[in-house]
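Thread: "does anyone have the structure for this chain?"

Original post by V.I.:
We have the sequence but no experimental structure in hand. Need at least a predicted one for the grant figures.
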Amino acid sequence: MGGTGAGLDPGDGAAVRIATRGSALALWQAHHVGALVTAAGAGGYELVVVETTADQRLDVQIWELGGKGVFVKEVQAAVLDGRADLAVHSAKDLPAITPDGLTLACVPERADPRDVLVGATLEGLAPGATVATGSRRRQVQLAERRPDLAFIGLRGNIATRLDKVPPGGAIVMAAAAIERLGLSPTVVDVLGVDTMLPQVGQGALAIECRADDAGLAALLASCEHEPSRLAVDTERAFLAELGGDCDLPAGAHCVVVGEGDGAGGERELVCTGLLAPDDGPLRRSTQRGVDPDTLGRAVAGAVR
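Reply from O.Q.:
Generated one for you, tokens below.
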């Protein structure tokens, strides 16, 4: 285990090395996955903490740093060069194209994909109130419903963001982050997907390993939650068709309906996508299908 191509024998009792960012949320996610792989047969786990450029440059908005890939490139590099065996990411941070040498081996069961306002409800915000968010996707959707609102940027770890609620205003966060860290802000307004379409993959974890590590890939396959994987793959296909990064103010949300067990009808995917053009109203499309790649790309084509 360890070098490129060495592979992991799930039965050899070795600990799996997990590459992760060092934030409280990232560490929670890595320990969660570590528990999953240990239960699946690995001989425990250890963390390889990587500080990324995005973690160091909190004064710059994500899209100015180059999009969501800034959160994951250094973590992926730790796996590619053999310092770690797998990487744990928030799926929403992953560009749609997986780098050569890696594979998206596992998506565990997804948490709540929705966004929340912290500090005030959407209806309770006074005219002209300030909302802090570092996401263009969040800003354009809130501005569509509340064009009177003012917006400022927001960066930092979860605790830092919670300390930056503007007076009389609110911040926008992912529901999953609050849930995973066991936080209880004073006012939390959960925004339904009809109000705020989430980022691609939001609420889900994505586990990457080296593409030639068949032993570890087999171990991770036992940690997969199939409905979550189908939904995330559909949303990532949507993003890939649009260009593969979060620089675009775009969002998507897919759900799996039906059991697909041959007894009660075919399982089906329902995907809604959104794109904010440079001018004009937001474009939305909801479509149904059975193949994640085909469906995600069709929804992207409809909003592009």
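V.I.: this helps a lot. The longest strand covers residues 250-257.
O.Q.: and The chain is about 30% helix and 20% strand.
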